[in-house]
Amino acid sequence: MPLSRCLVTIAQKQIKISEYKFVEISENAILNKIIESNKNYASKFSGLSDSGKPNMRLAILTCMDCRINPYSICDLTEGDAHIVRNAGARVTEDAIRSLVISHKFMETTTWCIIHHTQCGMHALSEHLISDLLKDDLESAEFADGEWKNPIRKSSKNTKPGSTYGEHVHWFTFEEQEETLLADISVLRNHPLVPSHIDIFGFIFDIDTGNLRLIE
Ligand SMILES: [Zn+2]
To answer: Which of 112, 58, 124 is nearest to 87 (CA)?
Structure first.
């Protein structure tokens, strides 16, 4: 999807700015903020290394959760590590693709998978996701302890719900530590992952900022 369309899609949704407060942000406000922020960034830009090889020979797979900042958590800067992200920090086919490329062509030899407490993928199930999507493609809401599709009085969306979600592996999970260790095992045993890669798993504590090594 072109960036402009993607931004419009994002802008049409409510943007959560705190746990209890929501505001509507117009598409122009978001687009303008990105363009203005980038002008500011570029004005101070001093260039990056010509090489895309991570200085620390490190790749991190972590969750897309907007509260997680792997650069801050691990005191990294641009050029130090590859960062691969998806919902739940799961070892999906695409995560494996990125990690294999990371080692084969960019020489990373340490891979860290960083899960986190309060992960949304822990509160979801494969059936729930596909059921909600079958009914309605727009954002669900968490109310009375469960995810539901709200009753909408109006919508800009013109597409109906779809059963396509029944054919997607969403990689939800129940037991976090077991899931993390199983994912590490999948990587270690993968035919395209060499045996000398160091693979570590952590759970980041949203409340304390601590990383806990899972063994
Ligand atoms: Zn998460």
So the answer is: 124
Q: Quick one: 174 and 92 in the same domain?
A: yes
Q: How far is the CA of 86 from the centre of ligand 1 (A)?
A: 8
Same domain, 99 and 201: yes
pLDDT per residue over 123-134, tens digit each? 899 999 999 999
- Name which residue leads in pLDDT, 6 or 41: 41
**What is the rounded CA–CA span in Å between residue 10 and residue 46?**
30
Alpha-helical (H) ranges within the chain are: 3-11, 27-43, 70-73, 93-106, 126-135, 176-188
Question: In terms of residue numbers, what domain contains 142?
Answer: 126-151+159-167
Q: Extract the tokens encoding 87.
A: 């919902």
Instruction: Give distance in angstroms: CA of 105 to centre of ligand 1.
Output: 28
Distance, CA 85 to ligand 1 centroid (Å)?
10
Do 145 and 80 sit in the same domain of this protein? no
What CATH number has the domain bearing residue 187?
Answer: 3.40.1050.10
106 and 140 in a single domain? The answer is: no
Distance 125 CA to ligand 1 centre (A): 14
For residue 28, the model assigns a pLDDT of 83
Per-residue pLDDT reduced to its tens digit, 8-60: 334 444 444 444 445 555 568 999 999 999 999 999 999 998 889 999 999 99
